[in-house]
């Protein structure tokens, strides 16, 4: 039987991990991820989860150990945040290049300097090129569900790529809410035990892994990895549909539109700010305004065609970025503009940057974003890239 | 939607109070609730905050909570009347753990530490203040749900005493 519990996002991930029955968890604690790895550790200690829990001395070692474990076909989980993610960065392409289906939670947190433990999405944007599937969740239930789904996606033979699940630091990791915990039997049925893959080692088939490939072969390795990551989009969508059939909760695949079909004005968001924007959309809809919302759930592989289909009726589009690519603009804005050009869709787009270093993105700020988009839709000139909830002019 | 803020000092259990209220409303009243602490590094003795949102519908708002229906003070050294500006409406209530008497229609006082010492033997007043809050916030959370939440969240050895403390304060307040 499934049951309801009052959990924060970190705990929800920990329950998702427990239900997925990993063989190995290797992790180093860092705020605001700590509760997740402590909870998993307590599951192991009290016998609720049979797995090898490796207490490593750094994030670099957490990923190195995960690579070792996954190389022999162990279902492997780790978790990190912020500077910890950057510290393990060197290992991330080793994992993806070796086609190891590791699942990692990342608590999105600001990057130094100035040092800061609060939430923004600067950390993961450094790693979009690491060859990992990048998923962003909106609430604790989605965090639990996507932890389970992520193992299934990662281990799919057409994918064989590591998956990173991004949760906004504190706003998701530390907020408690009602979460449905599926039964172990149901999860076992959805996610059978992982039995390895032909490119993984065992005693009978010793092999060299993470070998060198020179200029005669390297490009083909990389192109094959790229091709398979592109095709992972289809698997992400089918795994989500299968999950919905079994558990009654689905998330629409890589993109979820909210009141978007007849909307002239659309805002595109990732992660927890989506929930706040839903409140603002409901308010504006009740006033008869044709506004909508697009939640970008998967940023790698990038859902080019799905995005085009979802936004096709809109007149103007705003992209909320909780990150800055210094010297340019918000990273999602760059990605979304490129996707629209690839799909031959010509729309006016604007970039709204906020939430840096844990700054609240208020409902008033989101209202102002929609109002600015409305002005743009009637031909007024507004800034292409603008910043919200800023305390003083700079 | 009801929005509630808890004030206390690190170690006084104010966030545990918020969590109990969230458990009560979401798991036993079958409403939806959020409970979240003031984010960041906290220290014993330093002022800390806890927050709740409670609604009949799913709550998606993730922004900071500024205006409240109810505000709870576990420690009166943190209280001053300027907090009344943070109430959403004229019907809002501030409940304060204090030995003082404050004459104001929106401020309700109780010596929760005294009850905690008598019933629990320790000056941890969160379940007492939950009881006092619940007596004024009947639309947000039910009496029985709070008792069920305490029972489910605490070890049996301390749950009964905390339920007694909760009831004692509930019976002193109320509208």
From TrEMBL, chain A:
> What are the protein's UniProt keywords?
Oxidoreductase, Pyruvate
Q: Which InterPro entries match?
A: PFOR_II, Pyruvate:ferred/Flavod_OxRd, Pyrv_Fd/Flavodoxin_OxRdtase_N, THDP-binding, Transketo_C/PFOR_II
Asked if the keyword Oxidoreductase belongs to this entry, the reply reads yes
- One Pfam family from the record: POR_N
Positions of the Pyruvate flavodoxin/ferredoxin oxidoreductase pyrimidine binding domain = 17-239
Keyword Oxidoreductase assigned: yes
According to the entry, every stretch annotated as the Pyruvate:ferredoxin oxidoreductase core domain falls at: 263-365
State the family it belongs to: Belongs to the pyruvate:ferredoxin/flavodoxin oxidoreductase family.
- This chain belongs to the protein called Pyruvate ferredoxin oxidoreductase
Source species of the chain: Fusibacter ferrireducens
Automatic annotation (TrEMBL), chain B:
Record keywords: Oxidoreductase
Record keyword Oxidoreductase present: yes
Q: Its domain of life?
A: Bacteria
InterPro entries documented for this protein: Oxidoreductase_gamma_subunit, PorC_KorC, Pyrv/ketoisovalerate_OxRed_cat, Pyrv_flavodox_OxRed_cen
Entry-linked Pfam families: POR
The UniProt record lists the Pyruvate/ketoisovalerate oxidoreductase catalytic domain at 10-170
Q: What is this protein called?
A: 2-oxoacid:acceptor oxidoreductase family protein
| Taxonomic source organism | Fusibacter ferrireducens
Taxonomic placement: Bacteria, Bacillati, Bacillota, Clostridia, Eubacteriales
């Amino acid at each position: 039987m499934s049951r309801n519990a009052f959990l924060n996002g970190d705990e929800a991930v920990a329950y998702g991990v427990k239900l997925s029955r990993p063989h190995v968890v290797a992790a180093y604690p860092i705020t605001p991820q700590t509760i997740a790895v402590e909870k998993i550790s307590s599951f192991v200690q009290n016998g609720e989860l049979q797995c090898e829990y490796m207490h490593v001395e750094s994030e670099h070692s957490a990923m190195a150990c995960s690579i070792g474990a996954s190389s022999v076909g162990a279902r492997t989980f780790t978790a990190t945040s912020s500077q910890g993610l950057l510290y393990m960065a060197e290992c991330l392409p080793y994992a993806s290049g070796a086609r190891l289906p590791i699942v990692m939670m990342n608590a999105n947190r600001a990057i130094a300097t100035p040092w800061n433990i609060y939430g923004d999405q600067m950390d993961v944007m450094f790693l979009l090129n690491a060859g990992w599937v990048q998923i962003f969740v909106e609430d604790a239930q989605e965090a639990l569900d996507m932890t389970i789904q992520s193992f299934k996606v990662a281990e799919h033979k057409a994918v064989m790529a590591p998956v990173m699940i991004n949760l906004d630091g504190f706003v998701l990791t530390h907020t408690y809410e009602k979460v449905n915990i599926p039964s172990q039997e149901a999860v076992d049925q959805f996610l059978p035990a992982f039995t390895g893959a032909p490119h993984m080692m065992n005693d009978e088939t010793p092999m060299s892994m993470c070998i060198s490939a020179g200029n005669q072969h390297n490009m083909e390795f990389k192109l094959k990895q790229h091709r398979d990551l592109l095709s992972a989009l289809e698997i992400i969508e089918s795994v989500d549909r299968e999950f919905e059939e079994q558990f009654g909760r689905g998330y629409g695949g890589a993109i979820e539109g909210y009141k978007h079909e007849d909307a002239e004005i659309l805002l595109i968001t990732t992660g927890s700010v989506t929930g706040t924007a839903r409140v603002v959309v409901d308010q504006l809809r009740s006033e008869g305004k044709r506004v909508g919302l697009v939640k970008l759930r998967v940023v790698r592989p990038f859902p080019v065609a799905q995005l085009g289909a979802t936004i096709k009726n809109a007149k103007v589009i705003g992209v909320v970025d909780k990150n800055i690519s210094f010297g340019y603009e918000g990273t999602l804005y760059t990605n979304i503009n490129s996707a629209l050009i690839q799909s031959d869709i010509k729309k006016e787009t604007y970039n709204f940057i906020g939430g840096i270093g844990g700054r609240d993105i208020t409902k008033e700020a989101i209202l102002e974003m929609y109002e600015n988009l409305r002005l743009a839709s009637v031909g007024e000139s507004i800034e292409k890239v603008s910043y919200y909830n800023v305390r003083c002019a700079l | 939607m009801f929005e509630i803020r808890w004030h206390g000092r690190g170690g006084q259990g104010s966030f545990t109070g918020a969590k109990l209220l969230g458990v009560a409303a979401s798991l036993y009243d079958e409403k939806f609730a959020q409970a979240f602490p003031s984010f960041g590094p906290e220290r014993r003795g330093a002022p800390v905050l806890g927050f709740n949102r409670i609604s009949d519908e799913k709550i998606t708002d993730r922004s900071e909570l500024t205006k409240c229906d109810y505000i709870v003070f576990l420690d009166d050294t943190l209280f001053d009347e300027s907090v009344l500006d943070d109430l959403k409406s004229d019907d809002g209530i501030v409940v304060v753990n204090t030995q003082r008497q404050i004459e104001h229609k929106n401020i309700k006082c109780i010596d929760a530490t005294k009850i905690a010492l008598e019933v629990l033997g320790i000056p941890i007043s969160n379940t007492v203040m939950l009881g006092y809050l619940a007596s004024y916030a009947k639309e947000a959370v039910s009496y029985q749900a709070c008792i069920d939440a305490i029972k489910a969240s605490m070890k049996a050895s301390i749950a009964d005493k905390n339920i007694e403390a909760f009831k004692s304060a509930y019976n002193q307040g109320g509208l």
